[in-house]
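[INFO] parsing input record for RNA helicase
[DEBUG] input buffer:
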Amino acid sequence: MSHYSSHGRGDDRWGGGGSSYGGGGSSSRWDSGGFGGGGGGGFNSRGGRDDLDRMALPRPDFSNLPKFEKCFYLEHPAVSARTSDDVERYRRGKQIHVYGDGVPKPVTTFEEASFPEYVLEEVLRAGFKEPTPIQCQGWPMALLGRDLIGLAETGSGKTLAYLLPAVVHINAQPYLQPGDGPIVLVLAPTRELAVQIQQECQRFGASSRIKNTVVYGGAPKGPQARDLRGGVEIVIATPGRLIDMLDSRITNLRRVTYLVLDEADRMLDMGFEPQIRKIVDQIRPDRQTLLWSATWPKEVQAIARDFLKDPYQVIIGSPELKANHNIRQVVEMVEGYAKYGRLRKLLDGEMDGRRILIFLETKRGCDELVRQLRTDGYPALGLHGDKSQQERDWVLQEFKNGTHPIMLATDVAARGLGNVASRRALEKNTPQHSPAQAPRSRRV
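[DEBUG] output buffer:
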């Protein structure tokens, strides 16, 4: 039985640039011809990043804001019964480090998180065996309504750590009215990560008919604008396109009470800090803010101090956040002229059915190496920010299904592919999804 029934609004709320990959006439069986497509996208339709940084958005009036509910956590009896020694032993075993006043005890099962039944049914239907460490500690923190800093390796399960509490948060708020913007805003650094987050939103928000849309550059604005004007509870966005939508008055952030900054370190690396600050200035100051990052540099600490109030902090793994110890790393120092020959030897030794990901520094270098490898018969494709969204989606799908098991990419793919790998690990031995049960309520 859910411990959240008292928080709903009655039972109905709780129910239910077009380059070819031909590459010189390779006879490889993977050489299926070129893939056409337009060029990549820039940051928005109006101009480049400098234009976005100069764009002035009027600051909303935050006086006389209506109150909203954001604390939904009721501790499960099994969690309450655990002693401090039990909790410390569990955290130590899972490498969970916590900081802050009044940190809640972690949960150890999905049932202990005391989610509403419709959320729990979706989680169990997905076939997950048990929560990841970031979910065990992050769910109670987020459901308490406090601001939260989560530091964990990419692919640790943090998307569900903030998404399931977001579903609960939305269902406790008044329904959207015409002209309202979203209730939950998730900012992400790249299109790929934004699309992956949306897939999880579709999956776990369907039972309560929570609508969402993804907003990013490099794709037509029309469909995104129609979704925003029609009203959606969750918006997942890259900063540039969202600012464009705000400046065009296609949407607003007056209703946002749950803000997520995903991969904050990556967004700062990409130079999005001015745009993030511009966006956050549009959101009511008493919101709940959750900041997620794989590393904890001074720049991320600075925006955490500016955006979050009295936050909890949870770190999974070493507090120093060193390199992932689950990955064997081999470093070879090779002269520039010898790189390609060494790469071919490595590929010949590694191509045993596994997928291979190669990162490069520049887009031009990525395209050149793809052409060279395909000329020599290797099943390689490239991914970087100058490719159209259609082409990027196609390349990712070809890599995921193994049709082209070698993918070359700039760092645009670094985080998103880690999330794909994590989700596949979580869903190992997952049964075929059955159709979702018809919800007992319909959101408007």
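[INFO] The first strand starts at residue 96 and ends at 99.
[INFO] shutting down worker
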